[in-house]
Each structure stands twice: as C-alpha cells, then as structure tokens.
Amino acid sequence: MNRVEIDYCPRCRWLLRAAWYAQELLSSFETELEEVALRPADSGVFAIRLNGEVLADRARDQGFPEITALKRAVRDRVAPDRSLGHADRADPNP
C-alpha cells in the first residue's frame, strides 16, 4: 500500500496546514492510501513524500503546493485512471 509523509516545522506553526493536506489526501484517496503520517521536522521544513518520493518541498518549490496539483501528483502515482473531477482541469498558472 501507499504511504504519505508530511514533514512540517512545528515552530513555524504549520501543523494545521499539514493536517489539512492529510485530510484532503485521505478523503480523496481513502482506498489507495494506507497511511498519512505527520512528522515534526527542523525549522522551516515542509515536505510531502509518497513512498519516499518527494512530491512537494516548500524550499525547493518556493512555496506550499496547491491542493489540486498535489492531488494530481498522488493520483498519477496511485490511481492513474481515476478522475479527480474539477482538480483535473489545467492549472491557470502553469
């Protein structure tokens, strides 16, 4: 099964953001994801991995991921034939 890890900086007060991403992913991929782990990390860190692959990194990507882009990235790896409805629309700002 598939495991998502969300590393977040507790001192930056990013726990609620991490929990929101977790809730969104678990709601969208309830049968495809076995686990979403929230992991306190070093100062300034916010990264999301699926089975060890980095899907989003705040420092690398210069910001937090849009939820639709994150859902597409997860879907493309765990359920590529599945529709995400409105989240499948092209990004207005590619």
CA-based gyration radius: 13 Å
Strand content: 25-35%
Shape assignment:
globular
Poorly predicted regions are none
Q: Topology as H/E string?
A: EHEEEHH
User: Major sheet: size, sense and barrel closure?
Assistant: 4 strands, mixed
Class derived from helix and strand content: alpha+beta
End-to-end CA span: 31 Å
Number of helices: 3
- Mean of all residue-level pLDDT scores: 93
The number of distinct β-strands equals 4
* Oligomer class: single chain
- If strands are numbered along the chain, what order do they take across the biggest sheet? 2-1-3-4
Specify the helix fraction band. 25-40%
List the helices and strands and how they pair.
Elements: E1 2-8, H1 15-28, E2 33-40, E3 46-50, E4 53-57, H2 58-61, H3 67-78
Parallel strand pairs: 1-2
Antiparallel strand pairs: 1-3, 3-4
General description of the model:
The protein has 94 residues and is α+β, with helices and mostly antiparallel strands. It has three helices and four strands, in the order βαβββαα. The model has no long low-confidence stretch (mean pLDDT 93).
Concise description?
With 94 residues, the protein is α+β, with helices and mostly antiparallel strands.
Question: Could you list some keywords that capture this structure?
Answer:
alpha+beta; 27% strand; 94 residues; single chain
